[in-house]
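Students often ask why we bother encoding 3D structure as a string. The short answer is that it lets us treat folding as translation between two languages. Here is a chain of 314 residues written in the first language.
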Amino acid sequence: MTPMAPDPRLLRAFAAVAEELHFTRAAARLYVAQQALSRDIRRLEEELGAELFERTTRQVQLTPEGERLLPYISRVLAAYDELAAACTVSDTPLLVDVGARASTAYQVLRAARRRTPGVEFAARFHSGLAGAAAEILAGRLDVSFGRVTGLPAEVRSRLDHRLVRYERMAVLLPETHPLADLKEVPAGKLRGEILYAAAGNPATTEWTSLATEFFARHGIRMAEPFPEIAGEEEFTRIVRERGWSVLASMQFIGMPGMVLRPICDPVPISPVSLVWRRGLRHDGLTALQTTADKLADEGDWLQFPPGSWLSPND
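And here it is in the second language, the structure alphabet:
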């Protein structure tokens, strides 16, 4: 007798817990109660006749059987996502995360709107690609931008992406900071400095991991973790109140009382990719891809400045 195929909802529950290795975080990511998630995992284990997780009061780990089944379940979920994307009606608005109005993503979106006035785009403003990717996989968002190599492998396997730009990284300094008068800030002069790089924000882990690599090479200290900051106005308020210096890119919002200075010696680079749900078919996605390629060509977005540093992971 052929066994019944598990409900995709149960498979998504397994994938979320397998990635987070934490039931509370996985439940929050799936927007369900933790008890409901636990019930779904138990039901899946019963249907498969296998224990998938080892649970203790301190940690959650995949069992050997869970490790064995994970790649199969990931491929099944990717196929479901592709089927759903292929059935998307193209005349619905394309939901595009642009992060902030100064970003590369916003530049691409504005240009795509000018080039294709018959296509409707709806902008969203998430704070990082890790958070946006979860929204894409949940079907609440179509497209985002960011450092795709900073995402977990299981998440990347369910997304498609195209490199758009190599952004030059910078430091946002209070006007009174001793380095604020420099046109460029050598990395060596940041040794011992404390920079905010979104540590503690689960939506921007791809950025924090890049900062961690760069900071370790140059003796820069990471600011203590802080809860997720939502919106440009709130970010500006908190940064100014705390007197933070901030690791940023040259495509960053202007802030009163702060100056943005590119980092040099070396010039750190952050790759920005266009990221979308695997299998998505939409005229807006085609417009974004074409527009991004055109802007990259016109603006030399994929050229490295002399003395660049790119993470080996990128």
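Translate back mentally: Residues 64-86 form the longest helix (23 residues). Keep this in mind for the problem set.
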